[in-house]
TrEMBL record:
Compositionally biased spans, kind Basic and acidic residues: 576-588
Region feature Disordered, mapped onto this chain: 574-603
Lineage, opening ranks: Eukaryota, Metazoa, Chordata, Craniata, Vertebrata
Highest taxon above the source species: Eukaryota
Species this protein is from: Felis catus (Cat)
Domain spans labelled STAS: 539-692
Protein name: Solute carrier family 26 member 1
């Protein structure tokens, strides 16, 4: 360990001793050690790996039934009751039969119970993912020659096509429209799940953090408008052509306006009644949520009442109202997703996997922070991926964590993921016994359930003004993402949001705040002279702060800000001085500050008069997060130009990574120890200013003697 000379001399007796870091192993040794650890097998290691992959095997051993069982059972029953109507309703978004939504809810809850690390997240169908799956399903149905706009009961064996030649190319001959739709959905889900599993295996859990909260909120808003638009035809009971590609929302609204005169009066009245009841019940639940221990199962009550009214009133036969149709019971035999369809949806699965991962990981981390425990992002990716990969063989589609159900789960006393097993049992009961009872349920009622579930996402528009006051860049990301989702497509909105977020991040680091500092009275602290009054600037010394990293994209802004604030363009002034004659020239190979350059060159340097009203520049490097090669080169060129003008350049408050970069980049010269830092790097701005003042006094005395 070496002693820092500056601290001994300037710190009033304080001594700073640097630890010698251990010598890092070579790449070969590191890879060899990791390979050995990975190939070494033992009973303890295998059990630890099993516990990591299946966290339920760890926490179930410590489960306390007296404390947690009642809350888990209650929350599981409530979530199961909510899941059933939502599963049936969200099948409209995905373009699939309701039975497949029930399959998805059942398997997702069981798998996440075994593999999830969050205690409170509710895994299952999610409206945004259903929309994205439904858009791919509709596109593939059109390419196969089917008519996705056809709806009605008993459509499972329909083979009507719009394009016979396309059907022969893309669709198996033994597969109807509903069969082909679920094959597309399972192929898409399997590919998305494989992406998520690979992200978890490669430990890419940090990738989801690049989807910022404003981006996710804007995406949810834009997708909610798209979902709302897609459900209006069911509210009105009209048949409108399906629109694909950019401008789908606008085209759908124009088609709805043209076909509004053909609305089904029965569906319109049913929709108005259900919307009024659902919205009133939701508003009442929000206002009385502190008094209600269990949220009102409004959706289930409305669906049961509407089903009874539709069945006994024979609304489908008498008024032509569209209904859900036959819902079979039991499970269908598992089937391998079609490899040909998997190749067709490889690109469509990318945004689906990203959105599912981002929402699931962010919700898991949010609930973990609020309840005082931790989650593992990579394990969450594995859990969500397996919730998509394994159920894809059982005719299920993409799943994710859902905020609304997770909040209900927490509010009803959930302690562990054992509540997911109870929810799966409720869904299983519906699958085995109760599913056929919903045959006469009107599609307009299901559309009302979907639209009312969008209240939370649509209400986020009220947060935009506050977000604008807090961060205009984040507000721009929110608005641009939502607008692109509505005007172009959901996938384009996600891509636009990611690009704008990255550009916003780059812009903030490319032009950070740059200021000159001055001393706070007689203390050793310095602050922004433009922001605070009464500060005392050091005569002849400029203290410059650059509140950001110094790298290739902002090195020119760094120099421009420094030249502007100090009133001297060091590069131009040094070049001009060199051109005037050899007597003022300072060569590029001069020794660095703090070393002994020899008597001749030292005398020559002292004879160079300062080119401005200051003799030293101190750079406060505390906000300097990192340096790259271009940043080190910019500091080297700046020091050379300042030295040619008789001005000293000192760096203060450098973090260890910045000091290491300066040492490796040659800024400190050929020495490798602390002697290289002496005279150039200082642990505080005040010590650097004092050294600059002392050096200038010595130089002035020497020059007067000469």
């Amino acid at each position: 360990m070496d002693m820092c000379p500056d601290c001994t001399q300037q710190g009033g007796g304080l001594v700073l001793v640097r630890r010698r870091p251990p010598v890092p192993p070579g790449l070969r040794e590191m890879l060899k050690a990791r390979l050995w650890r990975g190939c070494t097998c033992s009973t303890r290691g295998a059990w630890a790996l099993a516990q990591d992959l299946l966290p339920a095997t760890r926490w179930l051993r410590h489960y306390r039934p007296r404390e947690a069982l009642a809350g888990d059972v209650m929350s599981g029953l409530v979530i199961g009751i909510i899941l059933v109507p939502q599963a049936i309703a969200y099948s409209l978004l995905a373009g699939l039969q309701p039975i497949y939504s029930l399959y998805t809810s059942f398997f997702a809850n069981l798998i996440y119970f075994l593999m999830g690390t969050s205690r409170h997240v509710s895994m299952g169908i999610f409206s945004l993912l259903c929309l994205m799956v439904g858009q791919v399903v509709e596109r593939e149905l059109l390419l196969a020659g089917f008519d996705p706009a056809r709806d009605g009961p008993g459509s499972g064996d329909n083979g009507t096509t719009l394009n016979a030649s396309a059907t022969l190319v893309l669709r198996p001959r033994d597969c109807g429209q509903d069969c082909y739709a679920v094959r597309v959905a399972t192929a898409l889900t399997l590919v998305a799940g494989i992406y998520q599993v690979l992200m978890g295996v490669l430990r890419l859990g940090f990738v989801s953090t690049y989807l910022s909260q404003p981006l996710l909120d804007g995406f949810a808003m834009g997708a909610s408008v798209t979902i709302l638009t897609s459900q209006l035809k069911h509210l009105l009971g009209v048949r409108v052509p399906r629109h694909q590609g950019p401008g789908m929302v606008v085209s759908t609204w124009l088609s709805l306006l043209r076909g509004a005169g053909q609305a089904n009066l029965c569906d319109v009245l049913t929709s108005a009644t259900c919307l009024a009841v659902l919205l009133a019940a939701k508003e009442l639940s929000d206002r009385c949520r502190h008094r209600l221990k269990v949220p009102l199962p409004t959706e289930l009550l409305v669906i049961v009442a509407a089903t009874l009214a539709s069945h006994f009133g024979r609304l489908h036969e008498r008024f032509g109202s569209s209904v859900a149709g036959d819902i079979p019971t039991g499970f269908v035999a598992p089937r391998l997703p079609d490899p040909g369809l998997m190749r067709r949806v490889v690109l469509d699965a990318v945004p689906l996997a990203l959105v599912s991962s981002a929402f699931s990981v962010s919700l898991a981390e949010m609930f973990a922070r609020s309840h005082g425990y931790s989650v593992r992002a990579n394990q969450e990716l594995l859990a969500v991926g397996c919730c998509n990969v394994l159920p894809a063989f059982f005719h299920c589609f993409a799943t994710s964590a859902a905020l609304s159900k997770s909040l209900v789960k927490t509010a009803t006393g959930c302690h562990t993921q054992l509540s997911s097993v109870v929810s799966a049992a409720v869904v299983l009961l519906v699958l085995l016994v109760l599913a056929p009872l919903f045959r006469d349920l009107q599609r307009s009622v299901l559309a009302c359930v979907i639209i009312v579930s969008l209240r939370g996402a649509l209400r986020k528009a009220r947060d935009v003004p506050q977000l604008w006051r807090l961060s205009p860049a984040d507000a721009l990301v929110w608005v641009a993402t939502a607008a692109t989702c509505v005007l172009v497509s959901v996938e384009a909105g996600l891509l636009a949001g990611v690009l704008l977020s990255l550009l916003s991040l780059a812009g903030r680091t490319q032009r950070p705040r740059a200021t000159l500092l001055a001393q706070i009275g007689d203390s050793g602290f310095y602050e922004d002279a433009a922001e605070f009054e009464g500060l005392v600037p050091e005569p002849g010394v400029h203290v410059f702060r650059f509140a950001g990293p110094l790298y290739y994209a902002n090195k020119d802004f760094f120099l421009h800000s420094l030249y502007r604030l100090t009133g001297l363009d060091a590069g131009t002034a040094a070049t001009t001085r060199k051109e005037r004659g050899p007597e003022a020239r300072v060569s590029e190979g001069d020794p660095v500050e703090g070393t002994d350059p020899g008597p001749a060159s030292s005398t020559a340097a002292r004879l160079v008069p300062p080119a401005a009203g200051f003799h030293a520049v101190v750079i406060d490097c505390a906000p300097l997060l990192f340096l790259d090669a271009a940043g080190v080169a910019a500091l080297q060129d700046l020091r050379r130009d300042y030295r040619a003008l008789g001005i000293a350049l000192l760096l203060a408050c450098c973090s260890p990574p910045v000091r290491d970069t300066l040492r490796r980049g040659g800024f400190l010269g050929d020495d490798t120890g602390d002697a290289a830092e002496e005279g150039q790097l200082f642990h505080s701005v005040h010590s650097a200013v004092q050294v600059a003042r002392a050096r200038h006094g010595e130089q002035t005395a020497t020059d007067s003697t000469l």
